[in-house]
């Protein structure tokens, strides 16, 4: 639903990078690998948190 | 930290150290083994799920004529000296 | 024999650092590491009272998210167990509630990270909460864990032992961590973790340096790396003191 606050595996805070990552790599056409490197999300456990995430708030909000 | 002696003899001691885990016990065991007065030092600990003893039990055997409780006290002092020295070196580098 | 440690920083930042410790036994190195992960207490939200929550997430889910937000941890001794700092948050949609919207009752305890999204609120939705932060050890819950991905490796010494034979294929030789080359410390990432790139055409030997550990320490923002390491040492020391005293009686 919302992006996880921390990486499930190592506990590093990844939530803060989501909006920039989404804007630049998911909606924009930048290379996700380069964006993650630039954001300082180095470990693959943290990278998958952002790469595999989908926001679902818009999907569920009509059914409140 | 709650201590409970489970077995005691002249040169042998088993003592339960309540509330501790590997973090401290392994450092303590290492410090005990550095002493020449100590011949054997080990600790035993089981996971909670095993249903047995969960608090660590430290077993010390010492050289003839050495009180194991004193060896333990000395080892605790060694650990303290180690941490103090480590912190000093670290702060000097930082 | 105790003492005589030699500490040297390889990389250094507020939240991430790599440093070499010489003269430590494996037991001591591991004790410090474990203390950093599970024994150094940090502040985190522990109890949340919901005044209004009309968002798409349940109270429990939001409480978990709030708990995971790292908070700055005050100096040692400032707070003890069961001391409580109250933070409040009040956001009305359409807007997103961020960690920076948490208003703390104590300037020493504030969100360490400003831009963590808590929940996206649509038109007409509102979130108003009051949360209590407590100081606890990492052992009780991962949200109280100050050290992130804390670990160590042996320092590796690299020695050139000769030249490769003229027509021998050059194979890559991967190493990780930090190497020591004639007294110089070098992160293996600097040569792409491949010794064949640093010593082309050479035959090298790699060996672990005994009792030399390269720690990699990262914090979640609760405090600096230095603070975390010294507090870890303090926590072991406090227990050694306690044991010494208990045995004397």
UniProtKB/TrEMBL annotation, chain A:
Q: For Zn(2+), which residues are the binding ones?
A: 7, 10, 45-46
Q: What reactions does this protein catalyze?
A: RNA(n) + a ribonucleoside 5'-triphosphate = RNA(n+1) + diphosphate
Q: Give its E.C. classification number.
A: 2.7.7.6
Q: Which domain of life is it from?
A: Archaea
The annotation note on the cofactor reads:
Binds 1 zinc ion.
A Pfam family annotated for this chain is RNA_pol_N
Concerning PANTHER family, the annotation shows: DNA-DIRECTED RNA POLYMERASES I, II, AND III SUBUNIT RPABC5 (PTHR23431:SF3), DNA-DIRECTED RNA POLYMERASES I, II, AND III SUBUNIT RPABC5 FAMILY MEMBER (PTHR23431)
Which protein, by its recorded name, is this? DNA-directed RNA polymerase subunit Rpo10
Query: Which species is the source of this protein?
Result: Saliphagus infecundisoli
Please spell out the taxonomic lineage of the organism that makes this protein.
Answer: Archaea, Methanobacteriati, Methanobacteriota, Stenosarchaea group, Halobacteria
Gene encoding this chain? rpo10
TrEMBL record, chain B:
Q: Which reaction does it catalyse?
A: RNA(n) + a ribonucleoside 5'-triphosphate = RNA(n+1) + diphosphate
The UniProt regions of compositional bias labelled Basic and acidic residues, in chain numbering, are: 79-94
Q: Which EC numbers does the record give?
A: 2.7.7.6
Coiled coil, from the record: none
One Gene Ontology molecular-function label: DNA-directed RNA polymerase activity
Q: Does the keyword Glycoprotein apply?
A: no
Q: Which residues form the DNA-directed RNA polymerase RBP11-like dimerisation domain?
A: 13-88
Subcellular location(s) per record: Cytoplasm
Segments traversing the membrane: none
SUPFAM superfamilies of this UniProt entry? Answer: RBP11-like subunits of RNA polymerase (SSF55257)
Q: Looking at its record, which EC class is this enzyme?
A: transferase
Region (Disordered), start-end ranges: 75-94
Q: Which UniProt keywords apply?
A: Cytoplasm, DNA-directed RNA polymerase, Nucleotidyltransferase, Transcription, Transferase
User: Does the keyword Transferase belong to this entry?
Assistant: yes
Output the Gene Ontology cellular-component terms: cytoplasm; DNA-directed RNA polymerase complex
Its BP terms in the Gene Ontology are:
DNA-templated transcription
What is the predominant subcellular site recorded for this chain? Answer: cytoplasm
Please describe the quaternary structure of this protein. Part of the RNA polymerase complex.
Role played: DNA-dependent RNA polymerase (RNAP) catalyzes the transcription of DNA into RNA using the four ribonucleoside triphosphates as substrates.
Q: Its family? A: Belongs to the archaeal Rpo11/eukaryotic RPB11/RPC19 RNA polymerase subunit family.
According to UniProt, the name of this protein is DNA-directed RNA polymerase subunit Rpo11
UniProtKB/TrEMBL annotation, chain C:
Q: Which reaction does it catalyse?
A: RNA(n) + a ribonucleoside 5'-triphosphate = RNA(n+1) + diphosphate
Q: Which organism is it from?
A: Saliphagus infecundisoli
Q: What is this protein called?
A: DNA-directed RNA polymerase subunit Rpo3
HAMAP family to which the protein is assigned, alphabetical: RNApol_arch_Rpo3
The EC number(s) attached to this protein equal 2.7.7.6
Its predominant location is cytoplasm
Its lineage opens with:
Archaea, Methanobacteriati, Methanobacteriota, Stenosarchaea group, Halobacteria
For this protein, the record's NCBIfam families field holds: PRK00783.1
Q: Where in the cell is it found?
A: Cytoplasm
Keywords, ordered alphabetically: Cytoplasm, DNA-directed RNA polymerase, Nucleotidyltransferase, Transcription, Transferase
Question: What's the name of its gene?
Answer: rpo3
- Any idea which GO molecular function terms this record carries? DNA binding; DNA-directed RNA polymerase activity
Q: Fill in the subunit field for this protein.
A: Part of the RNA polymerase complex.
GO:BP terms for this protein? DNA-templated transcription
